[in-house]
């Protein structure tokens, strides 16, 4: 009764129902722990691959060096492995994003053709409540976050699953974890143990103040769980089980609900990865060119909070969530460049780059998604900096040209004597002017 557990977005041993089922069915006959390397994916230079490689090495250690890594197309590799060990079943955590669902359909068809006695068994999902499960009273998908959150809370979730009993992990020939294309990004420690350690520290030292500190990019006020959640080094059930009923816990629970709402939206609208779910301005309003995009990408817009965020992304593969909203709004509503271009850049550099979260968060800022911020909400990068980075510490950390500028003045360097920051670029646009252009285009779309 040998089984295969095919690891994907569940790179952990704890709270992993699919792994539990693989171990249960195998009994004493053994389990193959498999990871399939997609060679197309691995050719791209992304800090996400560096992190994934480190996470796989940590998983291999937890399996006593028995993680089987094979390179190739999953629909070819998985049936070959199943035939090699005469597995009765291949176990997975259910995929929910469009690519994963299509891949799993292809693998199931391939197993039916080449390993007719082997079934693909999906157990659980990467979410506390599986996407597609919740519906409105009318039986339709949720369009608005607040009623979704109420339904999500009412539905609830299981307690974290137990760690499996010691399993017999089979040793097969393995290609080994490939070396990721090199980047110079400063990455956090990867793997289940590192994620759980980080979470415990946050619960002990950061959760109580999370409701206020999460918006302050200069301090470590967030949990840093986005990458572990993306790779499944920790399950959201595990995080939810540690939350109480205080302000910090309620706010954190709501942020997890947003994550699940976006996954639910993508489940029902898979083309939301690239298509705006609603039109907000006429097509001829997107006038921003390559020069503006390049300045945004490189952190050379002349707006310190925007530039600090873009440089943080390039250096660490991560950006504070408040700053993500500001830089996204700036690209779409100040530079008049479509959200899809910004989303592609984020996915190229974010360690926590997750299709549902990245694309739908961009659509939220752009006003094109479900329950999105209204298009006429235009983040003012100066006011956002003054409110959430009041002493300028975040900006000075990432924009060295401004380190000699004290206090809140760092957010409006164009008001300073030119000698105060001679190497910092001038503003590429005037926010007030571009905000007016955005609102005019929004009115034109509405026929106002």
Structural summary, described in words:
The structure is a single chain. This protein is mainly α and 448 residues long. It contains 19 helices and 5 strands.
Termini separation (Å)?
68 Å
Tell me, rounded to a whole number, the average pLDDT: 95
Please compute the radius of gyration using only Cα atoms.
23 Å
What is the name of the CATH class of the largest domain?
Mainly Alpha
How would you sum up the major sheet? 5 strands, parallel
Number of strands: 5
Shape: globular
CATH topology of the largest domain: DNA Cyclobutane Dipyrimidine Photolyase, subunit A, domain 3
Share of β-strand residues:
5-15%
What is the count of helical runs? 19
Class computed from helices, strands and strand pairing: mainly alpha
Order of helices and strands: EHEHHEHEHEHHHHHHHHHHHHHH
Oligomeric composition of the shown chains: single chain
Helix percent reads 40-55%
Strand numbers in spatial order across the main sheet: 3-2-1-4-5
The CATH superfamily name of the largest domain is DNA Cyclobutane Dipyrimidine Photolyase, subunit A, domain 3
Q: Tell me the number of structural domains.
A: 3
Sequence stretches where pLDDT stays below 50 over 5 or more residues = none
CATH architecture of the largest domain: Orthogonal Bundle
Walk me through the topology.
Layout: E1 3-6, H1 17-26, E2 31-37, H2 39-42, H3 47-62, E3 68-71, H4 74-85, E4 89-92, H5 98-114, E5 119-122, H6 145-155, H7 192-205, H8 210-213, H9 226-231, H10 236-240, H11 247-268, H12 290-297, H13 304-316, H14 321-334, H15 339-349, H16 355-366, H17 381-388, H18 393-398, H19 431-446
Parallel strand pairs: 1-2, 1-4, 2-3, 4-5
């Amino acid at each position: 009764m040998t089984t295969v557990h095919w690891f994907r977005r569940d790179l952990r041993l704890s709270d992993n129902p699919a792994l539990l089922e693989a171990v249960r069915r195998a009994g004493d006959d053994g389990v193959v722990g498999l990871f399939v390397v997609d060679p197309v994916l691995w050719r791209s230079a992304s800090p996400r691959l560096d992190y994934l490689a480190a996470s796989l090495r940590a998983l291999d250690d937890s399996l006593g060096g028995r993680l089987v890594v094979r390179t190739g197309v999953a629909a070819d590799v998985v049936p070959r492995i199943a035939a090699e060990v005469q597995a009765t079943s291949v176990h997975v955590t259910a995929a929910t994003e469009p690519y994963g669902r299509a891949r799993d359909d292809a693998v199931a068809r391939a197993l039916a053709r080449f390993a007719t006695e082997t079934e693909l068994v999906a157990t659980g999902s990467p979410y506390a409540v599986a996407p597609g499960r919740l519906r409105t009273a009318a039986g339709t998908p949720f369009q608005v976050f607040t009623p979704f959150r109420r339904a999500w809370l009412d539905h609830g979730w299981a307690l974290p699953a137990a760690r499996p009993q010691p399993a017999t992990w089979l040793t097969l020939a393995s290609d080994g974890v490939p070396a990721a294309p090199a980047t110079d990004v400063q990455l956090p420690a990867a793997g289940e143990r590192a994620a759980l350690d980080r979470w415990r520290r946050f619960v002990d030292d950061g959760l109580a103040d999370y409701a206020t500190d999460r918006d302050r990019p200069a301090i470590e006020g967030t949990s840093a769980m986005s990458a572990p959640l993306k790779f499944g080094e920790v399950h959201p059930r595990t995080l939810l089980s540690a939350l109480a009923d205080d302000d910090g816990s309620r706010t954190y629970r709501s942020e997890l609900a947003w994550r699940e709402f976006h996954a639910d939206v993508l489940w029902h609208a898979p083309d939301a990865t690239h298509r705006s779910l609603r039109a907000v301005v006429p097509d001829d309003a997107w006038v921003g060119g390559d020069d503006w995009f390049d300045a945004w990408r490189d952190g050379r817009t002349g707006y310190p909070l925007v530039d600090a965020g873009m440089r943080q992304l390039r250096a660490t593969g991560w950006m504070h969530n408040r700053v993500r909203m500001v830089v996204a709004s700036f690209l779409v509503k100040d530079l008049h460049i479509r959200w899809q271009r910004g989303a592609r850049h984020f996915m190229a550099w974010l360690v926590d780059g997750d299709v549902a979260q990245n694309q739908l968060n961009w659509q939220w800022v752009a006003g094109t998604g479900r329950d999105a911020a209204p298009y006429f909400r235009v983040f003012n990068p100066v006011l956002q900096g003054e409110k959430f980075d009041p002493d300028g510490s975040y900006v000075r950390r990432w924009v060295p040209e401004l380190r000699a500028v004290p206090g809140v003045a760092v957010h409006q360097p164009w008001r300073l004597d030119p000698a105060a920051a001679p190497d910092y670029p001038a503003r590429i646009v005037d926010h007030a002017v571009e905000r007016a252009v955005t609102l005019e285009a929004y009115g034109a779309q509405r026929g106002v």
